[in-house]
Design brief:
Radius of gyration: 26 Å
Helix content: 10-25%
Bound molecules: N-oxalylglycine, zinc ion
CATH superfamily of the largest domain: Clavaminate synthase-like
CATH topology of the largest domain: Double-stranded beta-helix
Distance between the termini: 38 Å
Number of helices: 10
Strand order of the largest sheet: 9-10-21-13-23-11
Length: 455
């Protein structure tokens, strides 16, 4: 880190381990204004499976148990090697791919899972001189024309077969497929226990799966003091610092640098849409909940709403996906003056056309719009249509966090808001922070292999 940089991340200190002495767990405090229908099931740790609608036995960690048949023989074609298995269809592997992925120690550094063969050693014309399958069918050895030799395990090859089934299984290992939801989520909010997450890898894996599939979790049993996000982060991901610090305290403040630091109603939003690196996952640890009415969290799946919009109003959907909007944060927080701008569409699509993220924030959206007045009116029409869908009762719900609960949401997908509370009438104290999807998925994959066996 350059000299002076640390000043940017003054709040919450460094990424180093938090060493504060921690209190004993307290009884849950606070009352909620939720009806019984809206109330989440009582803290039942590590039961995420029951919240998935699809059959997880074929879609999540059990993918790692897929059968890997042994080899029978291999025959050389023009550009590809055709491999015959004890069961199932034969598979073709391009020669150039086999050579590129040679697993011998000269070509592949296994401790780093990295190719070390130079690209200059690769040619499209590479051809085997000889290919043979081991007598037990567990491996295949290729001898190349230049005499270089490499052996491939049958299971390793089978996992990398180019057929759609294997590619789909790998896609689900890369990113678990999301399950979109509407207000029915109020009945099945995934829950986890703080202590279990700290001690039990299986509970942690379930929570990470829930985050990828459903995009939210409520963790109960955190202590009623700041610092719990640092503790939990040691198990999951580093906390991602922003101009609000490594963590930030959400309380009613004098001269607030952010509308969250007041008792005002916060519309459904994602956090920090004005950063090009919009934080991936948001954590909100409710240290003290407001004891009167208000301070409830509002939650919605922006991808579900966007998919509905695409179906019902395709033209308006495309306007939101095409017109760029400025998001801006200009204020001074604890002595740091900033003016941050990111220009992006409200609905951002992946190159495949799938919804990537929805950038919606009443408070963070700026007033500049780089379009004609007429286009601006059309954009507002589309935006308000999206909001009508978002705020219709079947598409969002409220949940009042209790003191000691941590709300974790996918900030690229799940919108959160807060009902107003009378800040002068009592205390409300939340500590916030952000995680990174790369590290969370990495943790999930490592735990999957550790707990369910490697493929
Ligand atoms: C925030 C926020 C919600 C809350 O700080 O970004 O949305 O419950 N806070 O205070
Ligand atoms: Zn927020």
């Amino acid at each position: 880190m350059q000299a002076g940089c640390h000043a940017l991340f003054r709040r919450g200190g460094s990424l180093m381990r938090h060493s504060a002495k921690l209190m004993l767990p307290s009884a849950r405090a606070g009352t909620t204004s939720l009806s019984a229908r809206q109330r989440a099931p009582s803290a039942t740790p590590a039961l995420c499976d029951q919240y998935f609608k699809r059959d997880v036995s074929t879609s999540v960690t059990s993918d790692l148990h897929r059968p890997q048949p042994g080899l029978v023989s291999a025959s050389q074609g023009h550009n590809t090697l055709k491999v015959f298995w004890r069961e199932g269809e034969p598979e073709e592997f391009p020669y150039v791919w086999l050579k590129d992925n040679c697993q011998c120690p000269a070509c592949f550094l296994s401790t780093a899972s990295s190719r070390v063969a130079r690209v200059s050693n690769l040619s499209l014309d590479v051809r085997p001189k000889d290919v043979h399958v081991s007598p037990d069918g567990e491996s295949l050895t290729v001898v190349w024309e230049d005499g270089h030799e490499g052996t491939f395990e049958a299971g390793w090859l089978h996992e990398r077969a180019f057929n759609p089934t294997q590619q789909d299984l790998h896609q689900n290992f890369y990113k678990l497929r999301p399950e979109l939801w509407n207000s029915d989520m109020s009945q099945r909010i995934p829950r986890a226990s703080f202590d279990e997450l700290m001690e039990d890898d299986a509970a942690l894996l379930k929570m990470l799966e829930c985050m990828e599939v459903l995009g939210l979790t409520v963790v109960s049993g955190a202590r009623l003091q700041e610092g719990e996000l640092h503790r939990l982060s040691e198990r999951v991901s580093y906390l991602v610092p922003t101009h609000y610090g490594t963590t930030f305290t959400v309380k009613n403040k004098a001269d607030p640098s952010n509308p969250a630091y007041t008792g005002k109603f916060l519309d459904l939003h994602c956090d920090l849409a004005f950063l090009h690196y919009k934080p991936c996952v948001q954590l909100l640890h409710c240290v003290t909940q407001f004891s009167g009415d208000g301070g409830d969290s509002i939650l919605a799946d922006s991808h579900y709403v966007a998919a509905k919009m695409r179906e019902l109003y395709p033209e308006k959907f495309h306007l939101l996906a095409e017109i760029l909007v400025d998001f801006r944060d200009a204020a001074t927080d604890e002595g740091l003056q900033f003016d941050i701008i990111a220009r992006r569409p409200m609905i951002s699509l992946k190159p495949t056309g799938e919804i990537d993220t929805v950038n919606i924030s009443t408070t963070g959206r700026d007033s500049h719009l780089g379009v004609t007045p007429e286009e601006a009116v059309s954009w507002y029409d589309a935006y308000l249509t999206y909001c009508d869908l978002l705020y219709s009762p079947e598409n969002h719900f409220t949940y009042k966090l209790e003191s000691g609960e941590i709300l974790i949401v996918d900030n690229h997908r799940i919108l959160h808001g807060r009902t107003a509370y009378q800040a002068y009438a009592g205390e409300r104290h939340v500590q916030g922070g952000y995680w990174d999807w790369d590290m969370m998925r990495s943790r999930r994959r490592v735990l999957q292999r550790k707990l369910k066996g490697s493929s």
